[in-house]
Design goal:
Shape: globular
Largest sheet: 5 strands, antiparallel
CATH topology of the largest domain: Jelly Rolls
CATH architecture of the largest domain: Sandwich
Helix content: 40-55%
Number of strands: 7
CATH class of the largest domain: Mainly Beta
Radius of gyration: 20 Å
Strand content: 15-25%
């Protein structure tokens, strides 16, 4: 399988095509893809997903995809690397958390985002702004940053598992989404708080999760949090105190205990 490599922190491309010429591929960066107009199928990780005007897709480095175009399609691509996400430690936190959540919840987003009409208009305008900045992405890095943050915010609130209504899904994916979104707020990850969100009892929440996932909900939360913490340490852009504060941990010693427990060091 072909792998595309991007060395620039951020790239924007806008084009129209009636014939998709790229092979099935993955890449070393993230992609937000907006279908301004057109009709066809987006094949993501082997799953065919029909698309039409207004479709939005988010592709992570671990995913592979290609398009089958039925009607000339107008694409707007926003491609960015980890270097762009972590470019400024003082204001990267919110975008980092959004990207982590969207990436982890790929079972939902690989089918595309179903946006409310008002949000679809907003996203369309945001991508149009991004397209207008493509000719000098270096000078426009800050402007693109805020458009990207706005797009990810809109997509997050349109995740079906997180919408507040009586018909909210109770399946395992919904629980995963809740955990991924609230991993930075320990008080929201207690069974007594989570269970009412899904209209079930705390005991049944734990039993259901263990039966479906093969791991206790507490262990899953710990493993996911530890993974995110190690990624931040590896990036080398945050001190331990900042990481501890971000995840709602009491102090650096608490953080050290988490890492020792996970690595045995």
């Amino acid at each position: 399988m072909k792998r595309y490599r991007q060395f620039e922190p951020i790239l924007v491309s806008e084009f129209k095509s009636s014939d998709w010429t790229h092979p099935e591929h993955n890449h070393n960066h993230y992609e937000f893809i907006f279908i301004a107009n057109g009709l066809g199928t987006h094949v993501i990780n082997g799953h065919p997903v029909p698309y039409q005007s207004g479709a939005v897709f988010f592709i992570g480095p671990e995913e592979y995809h290609y398009f089958e175009i039925e009607q000339e399609t107008h694409f707007i691509y926003l491609k960015f690397t980890d270097a762009y996400i972590y470019r400024n430690a003082t204001d990267s936190g919110e975008l980092t958390r959004h990207v982590e959540y969207l990436r982890k919840s790929r079972e939902t987003h690989q089918h595309g985002f179903s946006l409310l009409s008002a949000d679809l208009l907003t996203v369309r305008l945001l991508f149009q702004v991004i397209a207008s900045l493509q000719y000098d992405t270096f000078a426009n890095q800050d402007l693109i940053w805020y458009q990207l943050l706005s797009i990810s915010t809109v997509l997050m609130r349109n995740m079906p598992e997180l919408q507040a209504n009586a018909g909210r899904s109770r399946d395992l994916q919904a629980i995963f989404c809740y955990i991924h979104k609230n991993i930075y707020t320990p008080d929201l990850l207690r069974s007594q708080v989570m269970a009412p969100y899904f209209n079930i009892t705390p005991d049944y929440l734990g039993t259901y999760f263990k039966r479906k996932a093969g791991i206790t909900i507490r262990s899953y939360i710990q493993r996911y949090r530890d993974t995110l913490i190690r990624q931040r340490i590896s990036a080398g852009r945050m001190i331990l105190k900042e990481i501890a504060d971000e995840f709602g941990l009491t102090d650096v010693s608490h953080l050290s205990k988490i890492l020792q427990k996970g690595t045995g060091l």
